[in-house]
Amino acid sequence: MLDTVFDEVAALYDRARPTYPPEVFTDLAALTGLGPGSRVLEVGCGTGKATRPLAELGCSVVAIEPGPRLSALARERLADLPDVVVETSTFEEWDDRGRRFDVLVAASSWHWVDPVAGPRRAAELAGHLALIDNTVVRRPGEPEMYAATADLHERFSPGNPAWGHPPLEDEVLAGPGPWYPLVQWLDGPAFADLLRTQSPYRRLDPAVREPLVDAVAARIREPFPRRYLCSLRVSRLTPPTPAGS
Questions:
Q1: What GO terms describe the biological role, i.e. biological process, of this protein (predicted)?
Q2: How far apart are alpha carbons 241 and 162 in whole angstroms?
């Protein structure tokens, strides 16, 4: 399954992937009442990039992650936080053991959850669902790495439907907010490592992926800004009606 392919590059994923703006967690607390003593279930925690800020709100966090290497690295990264427990499982197969939560949080992971079973189970487990996601955007006039390397992408993986330009920042900002800007400054090798952790590149055969990302890295002559807009979507959950009632 692709949702565990990132497990093959757990340490690289931890190093290369962006974090989330701290304002996201401040607003999440304001919207849901999270604070000391609150109980959070995090689905698909990866290496814990969103887990730590949740714990720093004073919450107790149960974080689940299907990848054994990713979950092991999360335990290592979060070992100093006594109120964080990392469990290795998919959300669909996870044994909740009767535990219930104030908020279920999924940061860059909810798209891997079953679209029918996931929301139903979320409503059984938590009072709120909070989805956090980073969207890559571009600004006119700034270097845009797909535009600068489109010929390389077509040479190594021609006609791939995953290739294309990220949306313009203003187009995304015109949609429902809130939005939180985030920037990574990347040189060629750092950008290549980031690509190695992204699903369109994980889908490629290594004999295609590695020459492609190496060629992309060689094309980049100086550091450039990789821009993101982070979104926060919070909804109140209604427990399902018991069967037969």
A1: methylation
A2: 40
* Range(s) of the domain holding residue 101: 2-135+230-236
Instruction: Count Cα atoms within 13 angstroms, Cβ side, for 237.
Output: 25
User: What's this model's pTM, rounded to 2 decimal places?
Assistant: 0.92
Q: Measuring CA to CA, which residue among 89, 140, 131 is closest to residue 111?
A: 131
Residue 210 falls within a domain, yes or no?
yes
Give the percent of the chain with pLDDT over 90: 88
82-107 pLDDT, tens per residue? 999 999 999 999 999 999 999 999 99
Q: Classify burial at 129, counting beta carbons within 10 Å of its beta carbon; exposed 0-12, middle 13-18, buried 19 or more.
A: buried
Structure tokens belonging to residue 172: 């995304």
- Cβ neighbours of 30 (radius 10 Å): 11
DSSP of 165-185, one letter per residue?
PPPBHHHHHTSSS-EEEEEEE
β partners of residue 184: 226
> For 43-79, what is each residue's pLDDT tens digit?
999 999 999 999 999 999 999 999 999 999 999 999 9
